[in-house]
Amino acid sequence: MENKESVEMGKVRDSVYRRPITPGGLKAIEEGKLKWFDTEMFANFNTEILEEYLEEKNRSAEGFRTSIWSWPKVLIGISIGLVFALINQYVGLKVGMVVGGSWYIAYLLGLGLKWRPTEVNVSAGASTGASKICIGFVFTYPAIYLLAYHPDYAIGVENGKNVFLIETIPSISVALTASILGGMLGALYFIIFRRVWLVEDPLPMPGFEAGIKLMEIANSITTGGAEMARKSIKLVAGWAAATMCFTFFRDFPVSDGKAPLDIIFGGKYYEQGNIIQPYETAVYSHLSFGLIPIQIASGWFMRFRTALLISMGSLLTWFIIVPLAVIFNVPIYSAVDGFYVSVQNFAVPSLTAFSKVAKFIAVGAILGGGVTGLLKMAPVFKTAMDDLFKIASGKGGERKDYVKGLGWYEWPITHIPLMMGIALIGIPLVFIVAGYPIGQSILFGILLVILTFFLGAIAVKVMGETGTTPVSGTSFIVLIMLFVVFKLTGMDSTQTVIMALIGTTVFGCAIAMSGDITSDFKTGLYIGNRPYHLMKGELTGLVPGAIVSAIGASVLSYGLAMDKLPLEAPQANAFATFAQALAGGHMDYNLFVAGILIGIFAELMTGMGTAFGLGMYFPLSITTPQLLGGALRDYWQIKYLEQRSKAEKWSEKQRTFKLLETYMIATGLIVGEALMGTIVAIVLVLPLLTGGS
């Protein structure tokens, strides 16, 4: 055994990720004494030697005893995830991002109930599987409704009524079924990459250490620790309840469609939750501050620098682009009227310039930043392809998914080709039954299986290096590829746009599952979990999560498109705008190209071009509270946490719990507003769905 290890250690491959192992860690590994959560484990993350050692330890009888499956605990995690599947949709449509609150709630619940770290890991993984499958339904699917109902996307007028590119919304069952199959495929694909990217050449995955540290707390839980966990859960519940009350007063229609705060304060300086500059003075710009707990909380999570980068996009829009558009009296095309109107002729020139000029530039910036971010990762693409060919040629090591006498260690790798076959048959069949052309439906299934594999691999490699999954950039690429292929087959523009947008929705769901299971695998390796249990939890959670996401998407997308819900939906609007442009709709390509150039520049300068573009799409009422949240977090951390922890000589565990308390407050803000916001959305949209007014 020692000779074999010596030989393998002598054949160390070149790697940009691998860290040198510490002498103490090497000694503990050689003597077989290193255990999960030892100090030397934390000192030797991403050394490969540690990962190889833990991989073998997890495959042993001891590892199988440590990794436990509990249906009640998994179902609790899924229940939490289903709530967040709705929360994430509301938050995603409102502010353009998806929160990871379900993981924290599942973790704290497990901590309070004294679950083992492996049980917490599996339950939390099932929770995020249920909650993150919604990503495609948040970012892309609403674009179909916008192109079918929203007046901003009308392509003409007939008999006094708007004409739209999409006349009939496809059945939600099409996107739902395809997303479940795509999500399963996206998760299963990463059985292949787990050993290559997490064990043999471990990706750094910035920020994963925090999750391991929280699992260590669960491992060494005491009565006091359990009490702190219960206190944190009460903290979430209390802040969520308070935020729900505030959101009720801000949004819930109680009289003539007005919310209580609008009845009390509504007028020149307050409107629908925003403190605003009077419209009669808003010629060149429009200042506003939103009373939005979600944004304050998201700013707290991302800290000031990231919040500032996003806010800079918004500042560029409102203090440079919009004023210039008004000063130069840019002509605005009206699809309803069929001719151009100068921006200064509108009642509030700044808002018109924002809607008809700045937003087009922002869409270009989102695309330019996203694609540039991918191109910057060209070296990653090369290594990803090398890994793919290595695995395909059978040189990635012997099959290790089953341990004789113990059971399945990994999910059976033979299920990958089986799932590919099911997807290749099932996805086209869903479209054929829904009335779409047979040939294009089959082609769609083939493209989806291929794109999910290759672009999903690239996206996860990027996530492993940067900590961020490039959903927008890869999704735009998928949309373009699907659109071009379908048009080449002679499909009409309407069916092409619908199939391309549904395909991009499915891809978004699949890539979300790929990234999520990879994160679960990374954590599980260091705490003694079997990948088999993690995959089982992921696959179990994504099915009900997809169902809830599809139902929520139908309600929220319809309300959004009918202008009943005050949601920005930046990604959905970007996809709708881009799809309409691809289909030959009217668009000022000069603005679009200018936006692409801005996005490229922002990505090259900051590394966050997509986030910068999203900021450009937002009114100041969205970004200013986020900036406030980031500033408050930095101030609190410098003036309170660091000073008090030094003065009172806190342990690292005490610091972690104190920071976690603030995360729970922020999570409570997000949960409370999103839950009440969803209730308000149902109240507003239900009459539309049932034929009321």
Describe this structure as you would to a colleague.
The protein is mainly α and 693 residues long. Helix content is 71%, strand content 4%. Among the domains are: 2-66, no CATH class; 71-155 and 175-245 and 365-392 and 414-603 and 674-689, no CATH class. The chain has helices spanning 2-10, 23-30, 39-42, 49-58, 61-66, 71-95, 101-112, 117-132, 135-139, 142-149, 172-200, 208-219, 223-251, 260-265, 293-327, 349-376, 378-392, 415-433, 438-466, 471-488, 493-527, 531-561, 570-582, 589-606, 609-617, 620-647, 652-689, and strands at residues 154-158, 161-164, 270-271, 274-276, 288-290, 331-334, 339-342, 402-403, 407-408. Strands 3-4-5 form a 3-stranded antiparallel beta sheet. Strands 1-2 form a two-stranded antiparallel sheet. A two-stranded antiparallel sheet has the order 6-7. Residues 1-13 have low confidence and may be disordered.
